[in-house]
Amino acid sequence: MNRMYKTLLVGLGVLTLPLLMSMEEKAELSGYTPRDTYEFQISGQIFDKQSGVSISNANVKVEHKHVELSSSPSDDDGKYELKFESTIDYKPDQLNFIVTRDGYRDKRVSNVPVVSGAPSIVNFKLERKPVQVKRDPHAQRWETIEYLKEVNRYGY
């Protein structure tokens, strides 16, 4: 290294040094260890709890510590498949699942055990939302008026 370049390095100090170092050298200098990458392959099927029929177009979301890792809709047979990689600080052995579908109550399942690198099967049963029928008070009033007109017309 020539003298002028060494002087420039000393003059710029920390700013120049990281530019000339490899990623491994930077990690060693800072005490940072690169995060490991964990691969997950999770599949399963979603069913109606009462009838046992598979549910299509349900959304399956997987998260860890409130961070969404992946999501996927179910197909026509209610089957879903999630394949994703995660680079978090430590190896997760439990994930949280949230399954949603219009007309069904959201299903949240916490701390599901999974193994990185091995396929996992997780099935869900969703419960239907109760249907609330609201009667229109004006329509009911109209029906009563029509009934009274019929009574008067036919005399019964």
The number of distinct β-strands equals: 8
Rg over CA atoms, rounded to whole Å, is: 31 Å
- Low-pLDDT stretches: 1-18
The level of helicity is 25-40%
Secondary-structure element string: HHHEEEEEEEEH
> How many helical elements?
4
Summing up helix and strand content along with how strands pair, one would put the structural category as: alpha/beta
Range of strand content: 25-35%
Termini separation = 114 Å
| Major sheet description | 4 strands, mixed
The residue-averaged pLDDT reads: 75
Q: Judging from the principal axes of the Cα atoms, what is the shape? A: elongated
Structure description:
The chain has helices spanning 3-12, 17-20, 23-30, 137-154; strands at 38-48, 59-64, 67-73, 79-86, 94-100, 107-113, 119-121, 124-126. Strands 1, 4, 7 and 8 form a 4-stranded mixed sheet that branches. Strands 3-2-5-6 form a 4-stranded antiparallel sheet, with no helix packed on it. It has 4 helices and 8 strands; from the N terminus they run αααββββββββα. The protein has 156 residues and is α/β, with parallel strands linked by helices. Strand 5 (94-100) and strand 6 (107-113) form a beta hairpin.
Using brief descriptors, characterize the structure shown:
single chain, 156 residues, alpha/beta, four-stranded mixed sheet, four-stranded antiparallel sheet, 4 helices, 8 strands, disordered N terminus
Blueprint of the fold:
Layout: H1 3-12, H2 17-20, H3 23-30, E1 38-48, E2 59-64, E3 67-73, E4 79-86, E5 94-100, E6 107-113, E7 119-121, E8 124-126, H4 137-154
Parallel strand pairs: 1-7, 1-8
Antiparallel strand pairs: 1-4, 2-3, 2-5, 5-6
